[in-house]
């Protein structure tokens, strides 16, 4: 017989559970495997190219409709020497078209990464930051007297950088190295914008410049 309070030789003592172990309190962060694979940048380039094409068509259409409505509703203003009001109206149309365009193409991007972001917040913040950056950069470049290609490159570069940064900040909790998204955004939009919009504008404006 063993005395009270003693355990037999070889008996296994029960282990004490330690609730304060670190692993008991770790909350895993949700990571999206499909967007963390090594070749994810190829899909992102495709998303940005699609967004660029849709954005160009949408922005051009909005500007044409806006200018037509502005001219129809304010015919007396256009025929008057009040150029300041006319320029303000055209700038307002351009900024409105840019805002709506960025909002909608950001919504298209959110469709492909819907598990990582909230679409409305993602699109609204992108549109606000992008429109402000676009306006400030365009006005500054015009005052500096930049040519068409340089102007386009600066506008697309600055605008896509601002949008890419704000979007990458929203992706940090879901994607590894979320800054890769900002890099792809800047390179894709600046390259396409400069080569397509900048070169096209330069050739289209050549007859107006008498060259």
Could you give the distance between the termini? Answer: 113 Å
Order of helices and strands: HHHHHH
Number of E-type strands: 0
Mean pLDDT: 78
Q: If helices are DSSP runs of H or I spanning 4 or more residues, what is the number of helices? A: 6
> What profile does the largest beta sheet have?
none
**Outline:** globular
Query: Portion of residues in helices?
Result: 55-70%
- Beta-strand percentage? under 5%
Report the structural category. Answer: mainly alpha
Radius of gyration computed on alpha carbons = 28 Å
Low-confidence stretches: 14-18, 24-29
Topology:
Blueprint: H1 40-73, H2 75-78, H3 83-112, H4 119-144, H5 148-171, H6 179-205
Structure write-up:
The protein has 211 residues and is mainly alpha-helical. The protein has 6 helices and no strands. The protein is globular and about 55 Å long. The N and C termini lie far apart (113 Å).
Give a short summary of the structure.
This protein is mostly helical.
List its traits.
mainly alpha; 6 helices; 211 residues; single chain
